[in-house]
Predict the 3D structure of the following.
Amino acid sequence: MPKNNNKKLIIIVILILFLIGIIVGIVLGMNSKHSLKLEEIEAKDAKYFILQKDNKYGVIDTNGQVVIEPQYDGLKIPNPTKEVFICLVDIDNDVWNAVNTNNEKIWPNYTSVDAISLKTITSLVPYEKTVLKYQEGNLYGIMDYEGKKITEAEYEEIVNIDYKEGYLKVKKEENYGVIDIKGQKILNEEYENILSDGYYDEKTKYSEAGFILRIKTDDGYKFGYATTSGKIVLEPIYNEVNRITEIENNKDVYFITSLNGRYGLLKNNKTILENEYINIDYDKTNEIVIVQKDSSQGVFDISGKNIIPIDYDTIIIGGEYINAIKEENTIIFDKNGNTIDTEDASKERVSDKYSIIIDKDDNYNIVDNNNNKLLTTNYSYIEYFRDDLFIATNESKTGLIKADGSNVVPLEYNTVQKIDGTNCLQATKLDENKNTIINSKGEIQEGLENGTIIQEDNYLKIVSDKAIKYYTLDGEETTYKNLFPNNTIYATKQNDKWGFKDSNGNVIVDYQYDFVTEQNENNVGVKKDGKWGVLDLSGNVVKECTYELEYNDVKFLGEYYAIYSNLGLPIYCGD
């Protein structure tokens, strides 16, 4: 080949690679434009807390020291790691301003500065944590915590969108659009309302949730859909749009839509089932939809294939079994539309070894992978726990059995239920008013009468008016010292009175109190004659026993006690 041709070929290859690089850069740029890194705050990160006293609000730090005296009618701490506090300065006109730790107004040139509340709490702190809303005249914009404007004050309203932390619904000329906390425009202001579709998965959380769009027409409201990046998938022409959020797929989005009172199924913007059904329901277990046309029901898979004819009075899902009922007859199908010869109405696979079945008389049993029934006793309820252990109920009493039917925990409890986020169970006897822990191996860890089970970040505790017991998340009984080996002092009990020892076993506080708390930062709580007070870690009195509190699970910070609100972090009180 001539040298000139080689040079031309090299130049062409270089140009192609250059163009590919530009395209990749554009794509990555588009992705990064709409990607958000949200600030995550855990309880241990918090430096500041709200203080309530005499119906006024201020701020304390992690040592319980007052940073701002309680003097405001309302106060918000949108980011408890930063020295920015949002205070209600005009209750009649709902005006909020930001102050620092010296109680000085930080941005005096603005009409107001406010936190942006998360409508639906999806994190410990119920506010946008990196931006604030400021007001100039009658319009709003967003800025960062350094006071730098992210947008101009050009919006009539700025609020968070349900479940979509980092995304803000903004209003112009009575219509809504969407921006993100970087100020990027996601949707133009041309909708009567915009809502999140509520999609969630473990990996992406709510970040891939899209937007349900609503406009107002002469024929009433019409609905459409846009992705989280603002791409319009469905124009707002439908009477109703619902994403099937149980289908965990970021690329393919399935919708049940309504037109003129009839429902259909779409995949992205492609019609799978026309809008000709009275109702459509999705079943996650079998990845099918149950449709109703006139007075008959049938089943389609999500590709649109009719697997059970629309010829039955009722379709009832029983785990992996699809019960198709017509008059007095019932036919059992699998998810592919094949008939199953069985006397059972429901079968649910619960592990790689076992399934739970329910017969037509509502009796529960366990079967193996060969469909062999493993129990000779009928139970009114069975629920999988772990390994080969099952919660079982018979004659209104509940306990724990193995897959072979042998008893592990006697069926003598009123309730036995899983404790979310742990590998153990909570068992209750109402006649004894007693809560008990069952560990991951099925062993009973005796509880306390009149005790309340409380779940902390990395352990459980049962608190009564006389004692506290501690457990790991596997349900093994432990001690507070094992859980917190770096604490300075530990509560101990002697002759029905409580005191404190240090880590070497030396008595720091004599046994004189009716009840105590464990160490929180630099303080402990103590109860005497029905009233609570506070000591420091050397046993010195910080607050005399004056608080009359009706519960024993108290947490103190300095001389103040915690009010556990639904806002995540506690508010502390001095009343």
Notes: The mean pLDDT is 92.
